[in-house]
């Protein structure tokens, strides 16, 4: 199923559930957009990365707000490049969904502030 078709279904479902859980679809957008190819979100139980997990996003909302996350995913801002001080590195991931999907996704990510429990010894 295309991301577009998938998100219209999510949108329909989201409208029905709007009152109780406006952003329940964040994890679905995340996996539909294949962010989980490179990232885990252990705190949300998303551990399906197929590459060595580059960066777990469990606490990404503690570091960045929704406005920054939106710009970062659209490659309008980057992260400071430690190798070349004063320059920014743009994101490697690509997002091809709609702005509505992006809004759902970044609203969810901005709320990710709690590290997952440490794995059992
Ligand atoms: C091809 C691999 C890849 C994919 C796919 C990918 N990312 Fe990333 N992402 C990275 C890398 C690598 C970094 C670390 C920053 C850097 O070194 O460029 C990163 C960093 C981030 C950060 C910043 C984290 C921080 O600690 O500041 C966010 C937010 C993010 N990605 C969100 C996403 C979202 C949302 C998607 C799906 C639309 C996604 N990524 C898909 C590779 C990827």
What does this structure look like?
With 121 residues, the chain is mainly alpha-helical. The chain has a single domain (3-110), classed as Cytochrome Bc1 Complex, Chain D, domain 2 (Orthogonal Bundle), CATH 1.10.760. The protein is built from five helices and two strands. The protein has helices spanning 3-17, 26-32, 60-63, 66-73, 99-110, and strands at 79-80, 88-89. Strands 1-2 form a two-stranded antiparallel sheet. Strand 1 and strand 2 form a beta hairpin. The longest helix is centred in the N-terminal third of the chain and has 15 residues, at 3-17. The radius of gyration is 15 Å and the shape is globular. Mean pLDDT is 82; it is low at 14-23. Heme C binds next to helix 3 and helix 4.
Low-confidence stretches: 14-23
Order of strands across the main sheet? 1-2
What's the gyration radius in Å? 15 Å
Counting helices, strands and paired strands, the structural category is mainly alpha
CATH class: Mainly Alpha
What is the H/E string? HHHHEEH
């Amino acid at each position: 199923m295309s991301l577009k078709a998938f998100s219209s279904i999510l949108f329909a479902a989201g409208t029905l559930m709007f009152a109780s859980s406006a952003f329940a679809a964040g994890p679905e957008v995340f996996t539909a957009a294949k962010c989980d190819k490179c990232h885990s979100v252990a705190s949300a139980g998303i551990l399906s990365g197929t590459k060595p997990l580059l960066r777990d996003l469990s606490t990404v909302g503690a570091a960045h707000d929704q406005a920054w996350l939106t710009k970062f995913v659209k490659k309008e801002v980057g992260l400071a490049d430690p190798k070349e001080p004063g320059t920014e590195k743009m994101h490697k991931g690509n997002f091809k969904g709609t702005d509505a999907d992006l809004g759902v996704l970044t609203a969810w990510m901005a709320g990710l502030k709690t590290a997952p429990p440490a794995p059992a010894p």
